[in-house]
User: Fold this.
Amino acid sequence: MTTPRALTPDTIVAFLGDVVQRRGADSYLGEPVTIGQHMLQAAHLAEAEAAGEELVAAALLHDIGHYTGEFGEDYIEQGIDNQHDEAGAEVLERFFPPLVTECVRLHVAAKRFLCATDPSYFGKLSDASVKTLALQGGPMSAEEAAEFRRHPHFREAIRVRLWDEAAKEPEMTVAGFEHYTALLQQVVDRHCR
Ligand SMILES: [Fe+2]
Assistant:
């Protein structure tokens, strides 16, 4: 098993695939899909909208930070947010461009933004997502929302969040991780070489 410290541009994609394969069957914080299904569904939805390769990568990897924290999934009950958005961006930033890592980093902030600015969005949140919202700081204030809007990857972060929200369908059939390995390697190679 490759340790994260030893990862290179040649091994990162296989490492990510290994993580998703080994850990993908984990339940997803009270959602009706596993975390692997959720990540693959988000990528599928991005691809279905003909999003660019970097956005498909961001959708696929947005929750990878759940595997880098030290807290188990009962952290919600304990009232601790594991900061999976920041952790995910940090493990990816050696290999992926800012569009990818910022969309990963901002996917929780994008939820807080949408709750503050789109009256219909809150109603679309799953029960589990409503529960985590409070731990994540609740809807943004007007000042926070204005600042978020100025982020260079604001629009892309919102798109990833909307795929994230829609990727919780127990019956959706989607391609496996291997469908995305060439795409991921291209994104890594463009960034690292
Ligand atoms: Fe997610």
